[in-house]
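A brief tutorial aside. Many learners find it easier to grasp structure tokens once they have seen a single protein encoded end to end. The record that follows does exactly this for Carbon-nitrogen family hydrolase. Read the sequence first, then the structure, and try to relate runs of similar tokens to stretches of the chain.
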Amino acid sequence: MRASLIQIAVDEDETVDSRRLRVAALVREQSGADLVVLPELWTTGAFAFEEFGRAAEPLEGPTYEAMAKAASDAGVWLHAGSLPERDPDGTLYNTSLLFSPSGDRAAAYRKIHRFGFDKGEAVLMGAGQDLVTVRLPETTLGLATCYDLRFPELFRGLVDAGAETLVIPAGWPERRRAHWTLLARARAVENQAFVLACGTAGTHAGVPQAGHSIVVDPWGEVLAEAGPGEEVLTVDLDPARVGATREQFPALKDRVLGLEPPRRLT
């Protein structure tokens, strides 16, 4: 299975409409891939909080239409990163979209863990509630977004639902790049799954982005890693590697579930 991660540079001088057209063209150039992945909030920038409301779209808005067409033109499965979605009731969500090679929507995932603590995304956007997996011909994808990477229980849930390849678009800041690489490898090792983590380049609202999109195999080996700038990272994966790893080192079978919290000693 050939996967291409498009690490988009978000330039604040580029309009959203121009970037949307440019990214659609980049997707079409990946016609030899099976799966193409875009980063988080690439239309606005993940730290451009003041833009979320102004640039928010309905689910089937202009970004949806452009990416559906690009997926169909390229004949690829397209994880279109995420966009600020405005629900009919007015709530904003950080929503990822997955399109089939025919351009049909295969899934939508609303980010569960919102970053910012008491500001930014955490107060501007609603939280998703549902784990999302999607069966492709070669593998089953588990969908997560950026800050989700810090919460291993989410990925355990995806694995329990059949995920073999974990796809994580992000707008991760450069100042925490070491965490990005460490956590991507940890999620791969503990879940014995491929991790495809696609970040952004450039600067979002004055926050330099980490770039360094990364593909990790189920043993935790880094198969490919991008640099800091805009780049297309393409790697060939063997989906059978997941089953072989889980059979050769069956750690997932030794999970102990339902542990009670410790009792306080008096």
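Self-check: The mean pLDDT is 96. If you spotted this yourself, you are ready for the next section.
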